[in-house]
Amino acid sequence: MTARGQRWASLAAVALAFAGLYFRVITALPPGGFAPPPSAARAASTAPPLYEAQLLPNTSAASVHSATAAEISGGRLRAFWYGGSREGASDVAIYTSVYSLRQKDWSPESAVVTREFAQRHLRRSVRKLGNPVAGRDSKGRLCLYFVSVSVGGWAGSAVNLMVSEDEGETWSPPRRLIASPFFNISTLVKGAPLLFSGGGVGLPVYHELLGKFGELLRLDAEGRAIGKTRLSWGQSSLQPVIVPRSQTEAVGFMRYAGNPPNRILMVRTEDGGVHWSAPAKTALPNPNAAIASLSLSGGPLLLVFNNAEENREDLSLALSADFGHTWRIAHRFEGASGPAPAPVPEYSYPWIVQDRDGDVHVLYTWGRSRIKHVRFNRAWLEGRR
For residue range 41-59, what is the model confidence (pLDDT) as tens digits? Predict the structure, then answer.
């Protein structure tokens, strides 16, 4: 072997040793299961049905997509989404707006992350920004995870984290999560984070390089990756959403990008996320599009999805009284018989959250030009059963 060949062999051996060490460390499973889900007040049965819908403000971007939201103090929601001249453009930024639960209005949007801002603080080239995801850590801090791409397309993505201790008024500088041993690329987010009983965070992530599959990334209380568990394999599953029901039991749903029939995929765990069942197709269609799910305090399980196999023109709400074994369509948010259509007939990438008073909030992309917000209460939902 030549001296050059020996150098390359040495480098390869070092890389493999590092990857092996990384694999052993990153896949180590912490003790404990899921943290108990936060309880929401169950509205009195005498409360009148409530169903309201409105578009979020947008004076900044021609194209917007991928909303996320978390409840913050003072009876408010804070939403985030990305927008720019088009998806993947260099002018895409992540925007935020605050909703008053009492006044029922949204504040003007403002940019919270721009490409230049991310590039400066991450100290690396950033070509574009992607999906944001909002949630809380075990310390109660508001966390914003977001996708950035330094090279290539979405398959070259990385996930970054910013933390706020004042409900999103100010933020820590963004930093990359180390989630892969090879260049730390091809990790994306879409699903809501969840908490573990030991104080860590579970972040559903997915990959699009040399395959499409989901994982549950485990972060410690400071947001460092300490483990991950595969949710699927192969070329056709992505954007996992995980809904715990107890410390040990949870169900997960994934977008499907494989051969027909096009159906939402489902996985289950009964040991706190240590092991997961193989992905199985549900009876619900999926046109290779994101989904959102939530277990209401006191039941049932809700699922927001595109109720079609080939397009994103129908956005519906399904209910399950048996934690995902069977489903019933309860409402159509958008579709042929729905409200006034958007200029572009796409209603996609839903996000769902329940506030402390028990009301449910659904946000989604409306025609790629606005984010739409729907709010309803249990009395309205019970009228749909």
Answer: 665 457 899 999 999 999 9
